[in-house]
Structures are given as structure tokens and as C-alpha cells.
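QA checklist item 7 of 12: single-chain prediction sanity check.
[x] sequence parsed
[x] length recorded as 260
[x] structure emitted
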Amino acid sequence: MLTSAVYDAIGRGYFRQRRPDPRIAAQLAAALGTARSVLNVGAGAGSYEPADRVVIAVEPSTVMLAQRPHGAAPAVRARAEALPFADRAFDAVLGVLTLHHWADHVGGLAECARVARDKVVLLTWDPGSEGFWLVRDYLPEFLALDRRQFPPVAVLAAAFEATCGPGVRLEVAPVPIPRDCVDGFLAAFWARPAAYLESAVRAGISSFARVPGVDAGLARLRADLASGAWAVRYGGLRAADALDAGYRIVVAHVPAARAA
């Protein structure tokens, strides 16, 4: 898993590629519900931080913190596994595509539940998913790594229950990725395959920094785009408005009475 030191190296320029998509932001806002105070864990450069709520950001990487725009929510350098806040300090805790970078999933989730009064909202990826064409046909190393590093929903549920007791309730909802997704995460360009050949696009996707030896897969993609083979297999996808690539919003509703 990525440490803050690694992200200090690969996170430069993230703010150019990792901008919030309004449709995904709307799903996250709905999941946050009436929460007025929000702790954004693994906040990075500040994507998806709601402007209409009181937000505190937590991020371990100094490079990512330096990219937060002027006027962004105040940020604290810290890790999910050791949040420097009192119990139940926030209405909600938010974590957007950050779980796979934590050194200790269970410990981080326990901390999120500890500081939340009402709920923990996570945008994550389901390791039981088939992914999409890029990671199946061209870069299967990405799929294998993500399946090791993203915790299954059952692990999330067990971690929250261990902290909060059996009264915790989980909701899981799919996050369809729009064909013109503004955010530059891994599956964002499913309908724009040539984008993966651009170094600037790849610089905003941590998988390309985590997995060595991607040149052969990218060469196959380049050749298939040039020959029309990609269009034969996947051109029909371009008629779709969105794709379910396995991304999920998981909401843990934490009970008022917690486990001892």
C-alpha cells in the first residue's frame, strides 16, 4: 500500500487530473444527508469536499496538502489510523477512493467510526467486481493489485461492527461512471480509450505508479486502437451513458450506543 512518502513522489500534479465529477459529487452529497460537520479522511487535494458544510481535511502527504486550493477546508497532516480528534467529533466522516492506500484497513475504519456521530461515507471499489476492459484485457496486474488492496464490503462491515457493536447498519450503492467523467481516476476513461496512452492522464492514476512494467499492455492497447480491434470488441460501450465498473458508495450508520 502507498505510504505518504510514496505519494509525495507520485502525487505531484494530481490537482490537474483529479477534479470532482458533479454526478459523483451529487451521490456523495446525498449519502452525507443532513450532516453539517464532515471529516474528510485521505483528502488529497480536496476533491469532493462539500462547500456547504463545515469540513476538516486529513491527509498524510505534504505534496498533496500543498496542492489544496486557496479557500479549501482547513487540513491536518495525519493518517486514517490515528485521527487526532475526540470521539464523535463530527457528524460524518468522508473517505473518497482512499481505503486502498491505508496501511491498516481495520484500524483506519475503527478510527473513522470513533470520530463519527452519525455515519461514515466511503467511495470505494468492490474487489468482487470484474472491473472493466482496461484491467481485464490490457493491464490485469492492476486488477490483481486492486483485489488485494481494496477491502471487501464484508471486511468493512466487520470492522465497523467491532467498533460500534451489532447496531451498525451498512448501505451499499453502485456509482455509475459517466462516459464523460471529469475526475481522472482509473475507470474514468472507459469510453475514451486513447486517454490511457497520455502520460498526463496516467500521472493522475496511482495504479500506474504502483505497478511496474505497463508498457507492453499499453502497446497492445495502442495497436488495437490503430487496427480497430478495440472498436470491434468494445465500441458498443460508447453508446452507453455510464458504466458500472465496480465503484461503490458504502454508508455505515453508526448507532448512538457504541460497543465498549
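[x] summary fact logged: The longest helix spans residues 215-227.
[ ] second reviewer sign-off
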